[in-house]
Design goal:
This protein has 14 helices and 16 strands. By secondary structure, it is of the alpha/beta class. It binds NADP nicotinamide-adenine-dinucleotide phosphate and magnesium ion (MG). NADP nicotinamide-adenine-dinucleotide phosphate binds next to helix 10.
């Protein structure tokens, strides 16, 4: 069989631990036999990040700006324990944070829906994609404990030195206070990423905040979305047969529970943090959740939503068998290959992505799966496969 050709490379970001092992198996068994795989390879494994003083992470993000499509393996975010384990020169920052800061984007997370892995919410039939704004609010907040009686104000000092004040509270005893911010430019790129992603995936877009209570802060989010939608996207949405609507967050939550899915739910940073955990666990498993970072100027970075599965890796190192689910990592590759195909007009590559996804889903629906899914499936007597066996079973179908 002749292999599928690629015209433009994908940016390939390798990673750590168990997912690094899966990465290699996926390439060898599911991709390289069929595709003349062209990638620009960056090793984001912690050892190499340490050797390059984390320059490799920056370079991989810059390459993503150049080639527009990247696929990333899960990586370790160093903490104190990792400092010793890997003898690190510094506690390097989260690669995802570094990449996000360079690409400036929104993270979209969607569950992979499979028959036999049923959502807890019985009317959810299609995936619900959460679009999380990844800048500001409480994540860049400053806080104070107020020891006793006194006044707290917000003070804005403009460039010419003039001050504007707003009373937060007159304390008559101890309490707490928090200040947070966002910037219009970031909200605008959040809005554009959401509108573009909705058009890309032909799904409706919902956006919700608490603008009735937060009349300036949350209301600004609502206004910016509406202004950009009216000026740049209304016609395109009509043409694509999809809708954008804004509603109050309370109303959105109620509607989500009663919906059948199949749309994108755009959330402010905190809402997206907690709601994506709720949605993903209600759909079944973190190992069945894809994640893509979309930048406002059209760069895409695909990855799995889970981490490096450290506990399984330590078993693997001891020579014990593992049953680690590779579905989200496979879908990171298919997402990137499909997008590459779309940008390059490479139909064969897009069709290959579809076939690999179908082979993966068919394998699970036929009852062959890893242990994490076997524990929650409604399929009777599933066959539990090890990490490699599962990938081989997909390869056979493919
Ligand atoms: P994790 O890798 O997501 O794994 C947590 C647990 O979830 C696992 O121990 C396993 O449960 C289950 N699990 C997750 N993915 C699975 C899969 N594909 N197949 C089967 N089970 C799976 O989170 P972590 O152990 O807290 O973090 C490990 C490392 O990943 C950390 O260094 C962290 O910094 C990094 N991390 C990276 C990313 C990223 O690059 N995007 C995201 C999150 C975390 P059982 O052990 O019960 O089987
Ligand atoms: Mg969370």
């Amino acid at each position: 069989m002749e292999k599928i050709k690629m015209t433009t490379p994908l940016v390939e970001m390798d990673g750590d631990e168990m997912t690094r092992i899966l990465w290699k198996m996926i390439k060898e068994d599911l991709l390289e036999p069929y595709i003349d795989l062209k990638t620009e390879y960056y090793d984001l494994g912690l050892e190499h990040r340490n050797e390059t003083n984390d320059q490799v992470t920056v370079d991989s993000a810059l390459a993503t700006k150049k080639y527009k499509v990247a696929v990333k393996c899960a990586t370790i975010t160093p903490n104190a324990a990792r400092m010793d384990e890997y003898d690190l020169k510094e506690m390097w920052k989260s690669p995802n944070g570094t990449i996000r800061a360079i690409l400036d984007g929104t993270v979209f997370r969607a569950p992979i829906v499979v028959k036999g892995i049923e959502p807890c919410v019985k009317n959810w039939k299609k995936p619900i994609t959460i679009a999380r704004h990844a800048y500001g609010d409480v994540y860049k907040g400053s806080e104070m404990k107020i020891p006793g009686v006194g006044k707290v104000e917000l003070v804005y000092t403009s460039e010419d030195g003039s001050e504007t004040r707003e009373l937060v509270h007159e304390f008559d005893g101890p309490g707490i206070v928090q200040g947070m911010h966002n910037i219009n430019k970031s909200i605008e790129s959040f809005a554009r990423s959401c509108f573009n992603y909705a058009l890309d995936t032909k799904q409706d877009l919902w956006f919700a905040t608490k603008d009735t209570i937060s009349k300036k802060y949350d209301h600004t989010f609502k206004d910016i979305f509406q202004e950009i939608f009216d000026a740049e996207y209304a016609d395109k949405f009509k043409e694509a047969g999809i809708v954008y609507f804004y509603t109050l967050i309370d109303d959105a939550v109620a509607r989500v529970m009663k919906s059948e899915g199949g749309y994108i739910w755009a959330c402010k940073n905190y809402d997206g943090d907690v709601m994506s955990d709720m949605v993903s666990s209600a759909f079944g498993s973190l190992a069945m959740m894809t994640s893509v970072l979309v930048s406002p100027d059209g760069n895409y970075e695909y990855e799995a939503a889970h981490g490096t599965v450290q506990r399984h890796y330590y078993k693997h190192l001891k020579g014990e068998e593992t049953s680690t689910n590779s579905v989200a990592t496979i879908f990171a590759w298919t997402g990137a290959l499909r997008k590459r195909g779309e940008l390059d007009g490479n139909k064969e590559l897009m069709e290959f992505a579809d076939r690999l996804e179908k082979a993966t889903i068919d394998t699970i629906e036929a009852g062959e799966m890893t242990k994490d899914l076997a524990l929650i499936t409604t399929i009777e007597n599933p066959t539990v496969l090890n990490s490699e066996g599962f990938i081989k079973a997909i390869a056979k179908r493919l």
